[in-house]
Amino acid sequence: MPVIEPEMWWGTLGTLRPFPNFKPEKDARAIQVALERKDVNTLVRILTNRTNAQRQDISRAYHTLTQKDLSQALKRPLSGPLEDLLLGLMMTPAQFDAHRLRQAMEGMGTDEETLLEVLCTRSAQQLRDITVAYKQEFGRYLENDLISESSKDFSRLLLSILKKEQENMQGIIEYQLIDRDFTTLTEALSGKKADSTPWIRVLTTRDSVHLDRVLSRWESVRGETVDKALQGRFSGDLKLGLRILVRTIQNTPLYLAQRLQTSMKKSSVLFGILVSRSEEDLLSVRVEYRRLASTSLYSAIQKQFKGDLQLALLALCRAEDV
């Protein structure tokens, strides 16, 4: 019997769709043979043409067949960036994001933009799942690591994004709340020193539809983009964080396309976005990338990468945009 995945449907903005007539036992046997023959091309073909849920089924079928862990087995014939990519595909979405966050905080210095990309573009439920996965994968508390790796104001922003606790606004009419939030944000920038607290509170306790209306109101009334206003009144990591949070609220695919355009040579950024958005909105990211770069994401990948790694990345990207 084919495996039915109710969370996916035709018409999704993701590039990966459920593989038809999916049989995890058949895929597991094909992967077993490919591993014995060090047939990397077959590994790439199968794993980049299945959804994450299907890959998890393959992993379980492989373990039943061989009594071995598939991710560990994949390390033998693979190396370098291709190994990183395929092992990332074998993780659950929450595990993958947890690993990206940990990598952003390990070693010398912190990769603030990767922290922000992950935290700002995930739903409240996804962030709760990531927090659980982080503890399971590393035996550490995500909140504590974010605090230890960032300045006081920046960590306050990160933790507010991570928790995304909705304020109770029952009894307040929508247009009244828009007016109130607009006034709150305006007053926070009107003093000699800008106050980040109201911005953090409003941007992390309202739903995205409401926030988009508030930010649109700001730009129409004040005659400048919110991004420009924040750039002129804040500094350092806090400025970066507020600007990215606003940009993801206004247009997440555009922000991700901009990130790809400026970081195409940084494979961890490309891998992170392709893997995490391939079942969500990668088609929209591709459209925005084409507008920004005057070339398609597919063509950019062809130009930048070669061999089996190129094939894997192109499979996730899926198609050319003319």
Automatic annotation (TrEMBL):
Keyword field: Annexin, Calcium, Calcium/phospholipid-binding, Repeat
Q: Superkingdom, according to UniProt? A: Eukaryota
Family that this chain belongs to? Belongs to the annexin family.
Gene3D superfamilies linked to this entry: Annexin
Q: Which SUPFAM superfamilies match?
A: Annexin
Q: Which GO terms describe its molecular function?
A: calcium ion binding; calcium-dependent phospholipid binding; phosphatidylserine binding
> What name goes with this protein?
Annexin
One GO cellular-component annotation of the UniProt record comes to: plasma membrane
**Domain remark text:** A pair of annexin repeats may form one binding site for calcium and phospholipid.
In which organism is this protein found?
Synaphobranchus kaupii
